[in-house]
Each structure stands twice: as structure tokens, then as C-alpha cells.
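User: I've been trying to design a sequence by hand for this structure and keep getting stuck. Would you show me what you'd pick, starting by listing the structure so we're on the same page?

Assistant: Good idea, let's start from the same input. This is the structure you sent:
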């Protein structure tokens, strides 16, 4: 259903010996980068795609946020954003597959879902966007690789979880 890619944080790199780290030399500049990727095929109707993505996010977010004190609150916010963005995108799919990505950079969790045929509607046309805009400090779209739109939202992580 999905793949988890994890890059070692600076703290995790400190647990390993130098020869191991030398093999990671090109990635040493990434102080903290954690990513969850989920791909949902064309056989998933919008409601099913939404629930699959939410279930996957709920299972993997604790690893992404490292069980910090505010992790539960941030996880629930991220799950709400995933639910809405997958729903909006799945109902207006550009291609067969729907690709979702959740990335934690230490200060924000960025959720991106693509690809959508049309640009984002106004919140009055798509009420779920009110929720996304309320939780995210930034939201936008960019052109995807398949010619559709990838929608992303950035959710701030309180300093206590960093």
C-alpha cells in the first residue's frame, strides 16, 4: 500500500560510526528529513482511497514524529489534512494513480497529494478546504509530472515536538 523512506537525523547519525556515515556523504546535508509515501491505484474509489490514506498515515505518523509530546495533536491535524486533500484529489483525478506524500522537516509537516485535473476550487465550493486552510500555515498547488496539479499543505509543528 505504501513505502516509508527515512533519512537519518543528526541525532541518529551520531549513533553510527564514521565509516557508515561516509557511505551516506551525499545526504549528510539533510539535517532531518522524514517522508511517508503512499500510492493508491485506480481501483480505489474516492471514499476508499481517503480511508486507505488515513489508515496508513495513522499507522506511520508516530514514527515520523518520534512520539514527542505534541505528536498526537500534530498527527490528528495531519490526518485531517490528508483526509481532505485525498478526497478532493480522488474525486477529480488526473491519472490512474493517486500519490500522497507526508514530509516532516523538523518545523513543518507537509502533505502533498496529486494529481488533480483542475486547480483547487474556492472553499465555498469545497468546504473541506476551510478545515485545511485552518490547520495549515500555507497551501498551494504546482504542476505535476503527469500534467495535473499536486496540492500541498504545510502544517506547523510546535517547538516542543522538534
Amino acid at each position: 500500500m505504501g513505502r516509508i523512506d527515512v533519512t537519518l537525523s543528526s541525532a541518529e547519525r551520531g549513533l553510527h560510526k564514521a565509516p557508515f556515515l561516509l557511505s551516506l556523504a551525499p545526504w549528510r546535508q539533510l539535517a532531518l528529513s522524514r517522508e511517508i509515501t503512499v500510492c493508491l491505484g485506480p481501483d480505489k474509489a474516492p471514499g476508499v482511497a481517503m480511508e486507505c490514506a488515513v489508515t496508513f498515515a495513522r499507522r506511520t505518523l508516530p514514527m515520523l514524529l518520534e512520539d514527542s509530546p505534541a505528536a498526537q495533536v500534530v498527527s490528528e491535524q495531519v490526518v485531517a489534512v490528508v483526509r481532505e486533500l485525498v478526497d478532493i484529489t480522488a474525486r477529480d483525478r488526473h491519472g490512474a494513480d493517486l500519490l500522497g506524500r507526508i514530509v516532516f522537516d523538523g518545523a513543518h509537516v507537509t502533505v502533498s497529494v496529486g494529481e488533480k485535473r483542475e486547480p483547487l476550487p474556492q472553499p465555498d465550493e469545497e468546504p473541506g478546504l476551510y478545515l485545511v486552510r485552518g490547520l495549515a500555515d500555507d497551501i498551494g498547488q504546482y504542476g505535476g509530472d503527469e500534467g495535473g496539479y499536486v496540492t500541498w499543505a504545510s502544517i506547523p509543528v510546535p517547538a516542543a515536538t522538534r
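That's my pick for every position. To get oriented when you compare it with your attempt: DSSP finds five helices and six strands in the chain. The helical segments are 10-13, 18-22, 46-65, 71-90, 128-135.
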